[in-house]
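retry 2 of 3: previous attempt timed out while embedding zinc ion. Reduced batch size to 1 and resubmitted. Inputs unchanged:
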Amino acid sequence: MKHAWSRLVKLFLHFWFPRTCFACGRDLKWNATAPLCPACEAALAVPGPLICRRCGAVLKSGGAHCYACRGSQARQYKCRIIRSAFVFNPSSRALVHALKYARADYLARYMGTLMERQFAQYPELAEADILVPVPLFPKRGRKRGYNQSELLARQLSRQIGLPANATALARVRNTVSQTTLGRQGRLQNMSGAFAVVRPHEVRGKTVLLIDDVATTGATLEGCAQALAAAGAKKVLAYTFARE
Ligand SMILES: [Zn+2]
Ligand SMILES: [Zn+2]
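retry 2 succeeded.
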């Protein structure tokens, strides 16, 4: 009986407030559970199989590492491995943008569940002890009302059973927009932007950083530097999408 009522309520809501696919704008079916239409959901694509072993960037011409991680360069990074559930394409981009600007809870549940489904394909992340979302600068967090990476980490935490810690790491400097900066500029911009405020919560642990998107990995590297300096054993990262 309860089930029949909830179907009726859904049908009613669909009639008055039809939902549309976040990526293509087509109407969703009244009983759709995903925020994407079936075609756009099917277009979500996993990176690989050819990805950089360190940073997870998709490699066009094979090899083990991308140009930036080749040779001794890979060792300079405190963030040892970056992996992502999906490549950045119109479907994943639509979800990331929508998560940042609207409908946070509903989307975070959906996106975190997708991250959990892809997680098993990366055994190199299995040694993680805790999940730490990339923090926002407090002023930005207050404006948005939530940290989208924290919502993803909490959902993933519920599903894979690792604790999420959103208080150990903080963003202590508001950084300039990264879009006009090159790779080195981005790394410098993020260096010193984060600090561990509760070192005992990360000391000796393998930390899995969680973020919505990885572009050059500079933000993740800024976090990893702070975590390593505070005594984390190892820092890995997992994001929803990879640009
Ligand atoms: Zn669609
Ligand atoms: Zn790389």
